[in-house]
Amino acid sequence: MKFSLWTSNARPWSEMVDLATYADGSGWHSLWYADHFMSQTPDDTPGDGPALECWSMLAAIAATVPRLRLTSMVSPVTIHHPVVLAKRAATVDQISGGRVVLGLGAGWQVNEHAGYGFALREPAERVTHFIESMQVIRHLLDDQRATFAGQWYTLTDAPFEPKPVQSPLPILVGTSGPRMMRATARYATEWNTWGDPMTVREKTAQFADACDGVGVDMATIRRSAQALLFFTDDQATRAKLVDKVPQGRSLVGSSQQIVDLIAQYAEAGVDEFALPDFTLGESAAQRREAIERFRDEVAAHFI
Predict the structure, then answer these.
(1) Domains, the chain, ordered by start
(2) How many CB atoms lie within 10 A of CB 1?
(3) Collapsing DSSP states into helix, strand and coil, what is residue 216?
(4) What's the pLDDT at 22?
(5) pLDDT tens digits, residue range 197-224?
(6) Which of 8, 62, 210, 246 could anchor a disulfide with 95, C-beta 3.0 to 4.6 Å?
């Protein structure tokens, strides 16, 4: 199983350079970078926190480190026009020598859509729009000339050069809904889901049904997962934390307890686990200490 780092787009560039350099040199598989224009708030009011732009950052990291794969997590098609997004991904794939994973999402963060005037459609229409956007991107990346006529987008004998280095360029979709799962099976190369091992097993069974429904062998789709991490070596503290952390989306315990949980992901067929840095400390030093602990005391058992 591969291990990747998922970092917040609130981190300053200086910290990102240090983190990417460390990850590139210490065996991490990929750096996942959040694609949002505004910080999230609990009540969907405008967020005043810093939010650096995803594809600019991925391009800069691509030119800075030579090995690390680079994943957008995830680029919402409600904000990015699919032609522009495909061009960004292909360009960064060229800069990086073939290290991009294009993470795609249907859009969900209310405050950035409201604040900047991006339409956030009702869920059913949002999924339909997302599927059309994926079709556009796939045509542009894969066809010599792309022609497409949809409800929202039209391509007319459209060239798209240069193509990405990778063929096909990996497309990741994170979803748990049945229509989105079926679209992922048809058009994407990787399915991603949030959750602890039990949640991931349940969602994997649903994804298997979605693959069967469209005639796709699930073994051909790469699978990745992530969960929030809370390290604690005190069992009394662990018992209290378990009831407070986001349910079904968190891993809590000592290094050995986390090893046991990661083993369950491997048993469920997860190819890549991404470690979010959101709960690992308030300072860069605290986050790095927790990241290195995970690498040395947990991930090392599976590499």
Answers:
(1) 2-223 (3.20.20.30)
(2) 18
(3) coil
(4) 97
(5) 999 999 999 999 999 999 999 999 999 9
(6) 62
